[in-house]
Each structure stands twice: as structure tokens, then as C-alpha cells.
Write a structure and sequence with these properties.
It is a single chain. This protein has 131 residues and is of the alpha+beta class. The chain has one domain: Alpha-Beta Plaits. 20% of the residues lie in helices and 28% in strands. A two-stranded antiparallel sheet has the order 1-8. Strands 2-3 form a two-stranded antiparallel ribbon. A two-stranded antiparallel sheet has the order 4-5. A hairpin with a 2-residue loop joins strand 2 and strand 3 (46-51). The protein is globular.
């Protein structure tokens, strides 16, 4: 079994509260350039929310030349001490991001803070079976 953050597109309004809660939970600052969930807009009503899918066979792990990304107990995680900021993982997957200030890869660690604070209850941590 693996957990992942589910975004209910029918409920999400694109308010970006999740971005602010995420950055504050991890770095104690409100900075959408340093968040692990991203709301990407094409225009005011056309947007998508991107977050690590916690893939069962993550390509980001395979492309990382520093072995800074691993999967431990089903959770894909970045070791920021090993990450050199090359961006290979970001190139391979649009759901892992670069922390704009630290210059290191970051991804959702399923802390759940965004789930608690989503005003539309559009976020949930779900479990999926792994084959």
C-alpha cells in the first residue's frame, strides 16, 4: 500500500491556500516558490494543481545522479543534503520542484497540513494498492 495526496478537481477553486500552508509548514515563511504543491494557472479559470504522486516506480529516483531521491516505506523523499540542485528530477517529472531559494529539489512529504487547511476540502491523503 502507498499513500498519496489526492486533489479533487471538482472542489478545488485554485485559491492557493495549500501553497501557503505548505511553505509555512516546512520553512516557516509564506513563499509559493518554496512550496511542495503548486497551483499552475493558464488563466483565471484554467488551472491545475501539481503535487508528487508518490509513484510506485518513480522516474525521479532513476535520473538523480546524486542518489538524493529514494523511496522509503512507500514514500518518495528527497535528501536535501545530497541534492546538488541539478534539476534532472524536475526535468523528468513536473511534480517535483526546485526550492527557489535553497536551489534543492523538494516534493510532497505527505505532512497533511494542506489537507487540514484547505477551505474547500479538496485535498485528501489516500491509500492505493501497489501491484
Amino acid at each position: 500500500m502507498r499513500e498519496y495526496l489526492f486533489v479533487d478537481k471538482s472542489k478545488c477553486t485554485g485559491c492557493r491556500q495549500c501553497e501557503f500552508v505548505c511553505s509555512f509548514a516546512h520553512i516557516k515563511a509564506y513563499n509559493p516558490g518554496r512550496t511542495r504543491i503548486r497551483v499552475v494557472r493558464n488563466d483565471c479559470l484554467d488551472f491545475k494543481t501539481l503535487v508528487c504522486n508518490q509513484c510506485p516506480d518513480p522516474v525521479c529516483i532513476k535520473v538523480c545522479p546524486q542518489n538524493a531521491i529514494s523511496c522509503v516505506d512507500g514514500l518518495v523523499q528527497v535528501d536535501e543534503d545530497l541534492c546538488n540542485g541539478c534539476g534532472e528530477c524536475v526535468e523528468s517529472c513536473n511534480r517535483i520542484f526546485m526550492d527557489e531559494l535553497a536551489g534543492k529539489a523538494i516534493n510532497c512529504d505527505l505532512c497533511g497540513e494542506c489537507v487540514k487547511e484547505c477551505p474547500e476540502t479538496a485535498l485528501k491523503i489516500k491509500t492505493a494498492g501497489v501491484k
